[in-house]
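Bug #77: duplicate submission created two jobs. Keeping one. Sequence:
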Amino acid sequence: MSSAGGGVDIQVVLVRPHYAGNVGAAVRTAANFGAHRVLLVAPRCSTEEPEFVKMAMGGQERVELCTVASLEEAVAQVHLAVATTSGRARDPRPLHRPGDLQALLARVAPPSLALVFGPERGGLSTRELRACQLLLSVPTSPDFPVLNLAQAVAVVLALLALPAPPPRPRSPLDLPAPVSEFSAAVAHLGSALLSTGFLDPVNPERTLGQLRRFFARATPTARELAILRGIASHLVYLGSRSSPAVPPPASPKSSAAGSRPVTRRKRAASPSTAPAGSSSSSRSTR
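Kept job's structure:
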């Protein structure tokens, strides 16, 4: 059986799982489909529980099992993070089907992929969904859409099993950038747009969140993010050049010299012209 992702390094991320049996079954499924790493984010159960050992069936010996404190830590170094959700209007981004993700993996061939699954009680929070670049939903009956955690892991990994992707680009800069670089680039752009007054300082996320979703859909490469950062830096530079919008008031003498045509300045310099102070005063009354 071919591995899920067709050669892409897949890690399964379980956020705050409650039941050791579900974790064990998910670990076994990961081993079944060639996902070599399972990360537990702030788990509410222990892998020492008998139910975990029973359901893992030796799978824990075939995958790297790690525990981390936050989802941001879990996905920081992967190139593409995909959050699974039942689509209960927690995030306005479009929902991708497994076939869509399969096609994306074949097209861009990211070196690593994180499939993020929420806890049995309620799924991923809005903040956790935003920490991922794409949203994935398994098509189920609208009358009963929520899958068991272990079932969801099995279905997604099975649907992602596909032939090897096309050859990767030669330069690492042309591969999808890691999540941490993507987040940093969007934050840099947000800071630049905030400094120029484009974003609402009270609620910048209202617009920046839409820009983040826009860029995430494109799965930008490291080269493209470098361009985005360059744009952000140039916006800040242009803003610094135009920041003194109102020049300081000039003295009457320099104002008269700088604002009048050349012919009038010559007339003011003739011997018959009144002193500079009276000349400025008389011009202002014309």
